[in-house]
Amino acid sequence: MKGIPIIAAAGALGVSLPARAQGSGPMVDEKDPQAVGLGYKADSSKVDKAKYPKHDASQHCGNCQLFQGKAADASGGCPLFAGKQVATKGWCSAWVKKA
User: Fold this and answer.
1) Confidence at residue 88, expressed as pLDDT on a 0 to 100 scale
2) Which of 11, 41, 51, 74 counts the most CB atoms within 10 A of its CB?
3) Where does the signal sequence lie (predicted)?
4) What is the domain extent for residue 44?
């Protein structure tokens, strides 16, 4: 609880916290073990349909509940790949329709 006043003060001063910054961090590498485990592809159209039969062409990171960027952005953060960016047009097996 000691960190809460510091975070609140930073917000009040207009200081941004870099850990949550949009557009920061390297892109996820499809060969990264976490990406391989989730079947991540930077281009949703290249998803292995035999391995992921529930994948639909309309599904991509930009319309996933987990995506932390804006739909118009080329990439954005994802809590599954902490500190890294995913392609807006990407996909992984954890995709959940944005509400």
Assistant:
1) 98
2) 41
3) 1-21
4) 22-99
pTM: 0.75
Residue 23, phi-psi category: left (phi > 0), alpha (psi -120 to 50), beta (remainder)? left
Q: Examine residue 8 and state whether it is found in any structural domain, yes or no.
A: no
DSSP single-letter state for residue 19: G
On whether residue 63 sits in a domain, the answer given is yes
In a domain, 92, yes or no: yes
Distances, alpha carbon 55 to alpha carbons 11, 20, 39, in Å? 39, 28, 11
Contact present, 98 and 63 (Cβ < 8 Å): yes
CB-CB contact of 85 with 25 (8 Å): yes
